[in-house]
Amino acid sequence: MRVPISWLREFVDVPADATAESIQAVLVRVGLEEEAIHASELSGPIVVGTVLEFVDEPQSNGKTIRWCQVDVGEAEPRGIVCGAHNFLVGDKVVVSLPGAVLPGPFPISARKTYGHVSDGMIASARELGLGDEHDGILRLTEIGLDPEPGTDAIALLGLDDYSVEVNVTPDRGYAFSIRGIAREYANSSGAALRDPAFDPALAELVQAPHSGFPVTIDDGAPVRGVVGASVFVTRVVRGIDATRPTPAWMATRLRLAGIRSLSLPVDVTNYVMFELGQPIHGYDLDRLSGGITVRRASEGEQLVTLDAQKRKLNSEDLLIADESGPIGLAGVMGGATTEITDATTNVLIEAANFSPVSIARTARRHKLPSEASKRFERGVDPLVAEAAAARVAQLLVELAGGTLDELGSSLVTPPTPQPIVLRHGFVNSLMGADYTDEEARFALEAIGASVRTVDGGLEVTPPSWRPDLTDEPTLVEEVARIIGYDRIPSVLPVAPPGRGLARAQKLRRAAANMLAANGLTEVQSYPFVSAASHARFSGDAPAIRLANALDAEAPLMRRTLLPGLIDTARRNLSRGLTELALFEVGTVFLPRRGVVYGSGPLPVGNEHPGEGRLAELDESIPPQPWHVGALFLGDRVSRQPGQAAVPSSLADAISAAQQLAASVAVELRVEQGNHPALHPGRTAEFYAGDAVVGTAGELLPSLADDLDLPRMVAVLELDLDALIEHGRREVVAIPLSSYPAATQDLSTVVSADVPADDVLAAVRQGAGELLEHIHLVDDYRGSGVPEGSRSLTFALRFRAPDRTLTAAEASEAKLAGLAVAAERFGATLRE
User: Are 651 and 759 members of one domain?
Assistant: First the structure.
């Protein structure tokens, strides 16, 4: 929210010497985070001038310029070349003298043009940053000003004003207005507040007779049981001149608030929205057909909005309609058929209060955020609508020459704020600081609540503009905020001895550190996937579907990390990174088939919900285990002088899985597996004991092609929680032997369908304690090996802790391993 300071001063006493920084500091004390300071981009000298005379001079390029003599309050007039023709002799204009800088930046200097030396520039409203319209030179008399030549135009037009920008949290919609910010400034500084909604002159207009305009609220399908509109006020102003220029002070304030000046009637409605926080819409009364009905859209209805876009309406959309059909998306954007134009003379003013949920859904559905929807989504004061409509009428009468008509309507049935009992001592128990009942009462009355003493505490009725105050904790927050956060002591809790990271946390970090140390890059992806991606990687397994997805194309919670890793790889490939080794550690969501998840209403407040309720909450969410995934593509070793490129492969994924398992003290067994998205002959399953704990493999070539990935993409995913559960609680270090090792090779012949890892495990078991290390070095199928068999060669290293082994001892252990492999798989020694 951008707050022009001159506007703020109208409603609260800001010290004359206050700076932008000091104003922001005051607002920060009550929880409004500072964002930026916005000042005018122009600098002087910019003064008022009187056109003494001019000569029209046609040019060879077809243009006609005016050579003007302008009195700028100096001894001699200045000669200025001007291309505009909408001013007359005697007009008061704005002159930018040499040395001035206009928005852009656009520095002004004396320069020779069209055969003259132009000693300055006569400025338009657009060039001064007062609006987008460029109908020629800004004539001060048209906006009701008649200053003396030489008067500082920057101060005259309010161009020396500035605004401070603060961040408003979603629960404090009232602060999206000068009225709300003024209240917060008063609460923080103690300055006197003048609430513009209760201005006496405005009160007279609110009470002025207005009736007879037909308005019907017919919401047959309320969203979440809440009727779409609770307040609908209309007023009529006749005989306006919509072509009148917007006053400079108003255009400047709107610009500093972040809104460009469009036309006087539109600027007036925007001005009141920023002033009071109530969105306003104006209709050309003569283009309306009958009265107004607030209703839901019918299937198939369409509406052309003010941005000239034809929109297909949804049955949940709340509409403003007349007898001709829809004329606006309620609380979001008006329709083109009743738009106010320069030809408009009679205006119907609408000030309404709409359901925040309904407006939020419509704005997101149509991708149509607006200043109005931003306020309605966060909650608008339902009791300010009549004052806002009267304020718009007041400005249209004053600035556009209109006349207030008695035609209008007032349907006001806002929800009644419910009183909340704030128990004695509750503030102190929740905040950990000492507040008296008098301080609590003062803070709550300062925010506009009515407070009375009852048995056991204070009965607090929130003000109409604070729908976020619903229970005791929200009231406590207001007490702490208004009295000052500095009253809350800064005390660090003392950790009990022996506490720290849990075993699972330490091992998850160890696993991530191992992968990062091996050159993989950690990434984090969104846990949301599309239905197609879910089917591709998880088949028909059940998935959690979000009720209000951030992206309608990805409404499901992931069951696997692979879609996110693949999307990350695709994004990096599109940016020229062709050698990738990525990993992610994160949770997945594994609902059980046939189980309905959902907890119902959640506990509120600071009371313990009880063990039973906690158990119900745990059962209401699906299992969310931690997984670790990795992806490899491109070259593992880049081509370089004397070294050929080494491409990544499935072996890298399997090696990473084994190292990862070792980091959490688990031994993995590898077997051939299958996966719907992986190559059927190049997929491995990992076992810890008898449980499957993960998968590795190469993406199906057809899938890789569909996803614009290289043909070879190796992926890995392990259930990290399952690995940690199977890991050894205590790891015993084996003392290093100082005696030399004895190395031997063992070549066995087994059936081709026997997994090599099973043969390795059999040899390891049979070789006994003297075997220090074993690994597969060759898998041969061909000449010299029977059909349907293969030769597996293992490298073995033997060592004894207390002596030097003889070759005979090593051979005996090797043959003992072969014997076990022969018993289990019919393995024979290759000749």
Answer: no
CA distances from 318 to 305, 321, 548 (A): 14, 10, 19
**Cα–Cα distance, 404 to 819 (Å, whole number):** 107
Residue 773 maps to a domain: yes
User: What pLDDT does 729 receive?
Assistant: 73
Q: By the 8 A CB rule, do 591 and 544 touch?
A: yes
Ligand-binding site membership of 350 (annotated)? no
The sign of the torsion formed by the CA atoms of 316, 319, 325, 328 equals negative
CATH number of the domain at 398, please.
3.50.40.10
Digit-coded pLDDT (tens) for 246-256: 888 898 889 88
> Which single residue is written with the structure tokens 């009267």?
390
Residue 549 shares a structural domain with residue 441: no
438 is in an annotated binding site: no
Task: Tell me, yes or no, whether 608 lies in a domain.
Answer: no
Residue where one domain finishes, among candidates 412, 436, 466: 412
- Same-domain pairing of 313 and 259: yes
Using an 8 Å Cβ cutoff, are 233 and 351 in contact?
yes
pLDDT average, residue stretch 84-113: 90
Which segments within 590-706 are labelled E, that is strand?
626-633, 635-637, 646-647, 669-672, 678-688, 691-699
Write the CATH number for 468.
Answer: 3.30.56.10
- Are residues 183 and 211 located together in one domain of the fold? no
Query: Which of helix, strand or coil describes residue 648?
Result: coil
Closest CA to 82 of 114, 109, 130, 35: 114
**Contact in structure between 523 and 565 (CB atoms under 8 Å):** yes
**Shared-domain flag, residues 512 and 629:** yes
Helix, strand, coil in percent for the chain, rounding step 5: 30, 30, 40
374 and 249 together in one domain: yes
Q: d(Cα 185, Cα 164) in Å, to the nearest integer? A: 12
Beta-carbon contacts of residue 653 (< 8 Å; ≥ 6 apart):
630, 632, 684, 696, 697, 714, 715, 716
- Note the Cα 306 to chain centre separation in Å: 26
CATH number at residue 56: 2.40.50.140
Check pLDDT > 60 for residue 134. Answer: no
pLDDT for residue 548? 85
Q: Are 428 and 434 in contact (CB under 8 A)?
A: yes
Which domain CATH number covers 579? 3.30.930.10
CB 48 within 8 A of CB 149: yes
* 478 marked ligand binding residue: yes
User: Can you tell me the distance from the alpha carbon of 441 to that of 435, in angstroms, rounded to the nearest whole number?
Assistant: 10
In Å, what is the CA distance from 621 to each residue of 540, 561, 591, 598? 20, 19, 8, 7
Give burial (CB, 10 Å; 0-12/13-18/19+) of 416: exposed
- Asked if residue 605 belongs to a domain, the reply is no
Q: Which domain holds residue 170?
A: 2-40+161-190
Count of domains forming the chain: 6
Q: Which amino acid is residue 93, in one-letter code?
A: V
- Tell me: pLDDT of 410 over 70: yes
- What distance lies between CA 537 and its chain's CA centroid? 28
Where does a domain end: 726, 756, 788? Answer: 726
- Sheet containing 420-423: give its strands across: 420-423, 457-461, 450-454
**pLDDT tens column, 576-600:** 999 999 999 999 999 988 888 876 6
For residues 225 and 357, state if they share a domain: yes
> Per the domain annotation, does 495 fall within a domain?
no
Q: Is the pLDDT of residue 136 over 90?
A: no
The C-alpha torsion from 287 through 291 and 295 to 300, rounded to 10°, is -40
Helix, coil or strand: residue 716: strand
If asked whether residues 658 and 762 sit together in one domain, one would say no
d(CA 56, CA 753): 100
Rounded to whole angstroms, the Cα distance separating 531 from 670 reads: 31
How far apart CA 686 and CA 671 sit, in angstroms, is: 7
